[in-house]
Amino acid sequence: MEKEYNMTINRLPSKTWNWLRMNETQLERIEIPAAGEAKVTLPEKITTAENEGSKPWNADFVGIASGMGEDMDGLLAAAGVKAKHYEVPADVTEVQPLLLDYAYAQNSLQAGAVAVKAGKNSEITVIEDFASDRETSGQAAVSTRLYLEEGAKLRLIQVQRLGSDFTFMNDIGALCEEKASLEVIQLILGGKNTYLGCKTTLQGRESSVNTDTAYIVDGEGRLDMNYVALHEGKKTQSNMQAGGVLRDHAFKLYRGTIDFKWGAKGAVGNEKEDVLLLSNDVVNQTIPLILCAEEDVEGNHGATIGKLDDELLFYLESRGMNREQIYEMMAMAKVDAVCRKIPDASTQAKVQKFLGRAVEEEEA
After folding, report:
1. In a domain, 179, yes or no
2. How far apart are CA 4 and CA 79, in angstroms?
3. Does residue 326 form part of some domain?
4. Is 10 inside a domain boundary?
5. What are the residue boundaries of the SUF system FeS cluster assembly SufBD core domain, all occurrences included (predicted)?
6. CA dihedral in degrees (348, 127, 214, 82; nearest 10)?
7. Which end of the chain lies in a sparser environment, N or C, as judged by fewer CB atoms within 10 Å?
8. Model-level pTM?
């Protein structure tokens, strides 16, 4: 049995200039992990099941493509992963979130998969918390598949609080039927090498997706992202936002694609990234992409990338703050803006504790 795996992940739907080396990411000799499980807090109205051992882990969601691509599925299959399936019945609004806590120990080598089906006109929040001690090293891979039936509303929240030498592969694939609405909120606060993929197929008329990602990458950290909004239905809407801070010798690559397919009349897509560079030694790469096979659509993209304005620095320094305090304040502001969107107080507290701010807030 093979113990290592070569992967091509985070492919752009349409290639750009090869010399940029941004079309895809090659991962060589990745160790094949063992299947792992999350600690689950299951709301009363949610049903759960594990896929049959004879089926591929994603058999019931095989038509839902993901952001990282087929090689991620191959890694999970090689690891013998069995997906945990969760279903929200039709017309059910579940107030309590489905909580999935992934706790990784030193030298962890784990993989997992989650599949969530939101029934017609249902509503649910799913929170995935990926955590380890600050100095932990290891490798983990998790794939999340989402299927939203007509009128369903699903909010997926992911918090990454991993050690400074941890490699993490986080893959999302979603399909939205008519008038279904998906919201994805991500906080990337730790880890050394992080690979994110998120692809949403807006198949049904007037379906929508909103993604909001905040990140802090420092040290020798690497963040590699691929977000795709695939517009197939009429009057579909996508809004993809990412914002974060790079410091020390960090590297970040953001791919954001709005893909208007033929027949997606009246569709609207927006994407924006806001990057703050706090060191001269960081590497930032951003590639916003709009693909269009339909005339009656509206696509917008933009990126704001740069350092703090000198006038702002002077103003804050004149108020008694040093540059280290200013940089920390600006970094935390981006995280706080997204953290406030998390509807679970316990998860918010975990974020603040990881950032070393819990005592300060309690005293305040």
Report:
1. yes
2. 11
3. no
4. no
5. 106-332
6. 140
7. N
8. 0.93
Tokens describing residue 263: 């027949």
Task: Provide the mean pLDDT of the chain.
Answer: 90
Mode of pairing for the β-strands spanning 47-50 and 84-88: antiparallel
- The answer to whether 148 and 177 have CB atoms below 8 angstroms apart is yes
Q: List CB contacts of 211: < 8 A, sequence separation 6 or more.
A: 183, 184, 185, 186, 198, 200, 227, 239, 240, 241, 242
The tally of domains found in the chain comes to: 1
* pLDDT value of residue 58: 67
Asked, for residue 336, whether it belongs to a domain, the answer is no
In the prediction, which pLDDT does 364 show? 37
| Predicted local distance difference test score (pLDDT) of residue 4 | 83
For 50-107, the pLDDT digits (tens) are: 776 666 666 667 789 999 999 999 999 999 998 899 999 999 999 999 999 999 999 9
Q: Are 66 and 199 in contact (CB under 8 A)?
A: yes
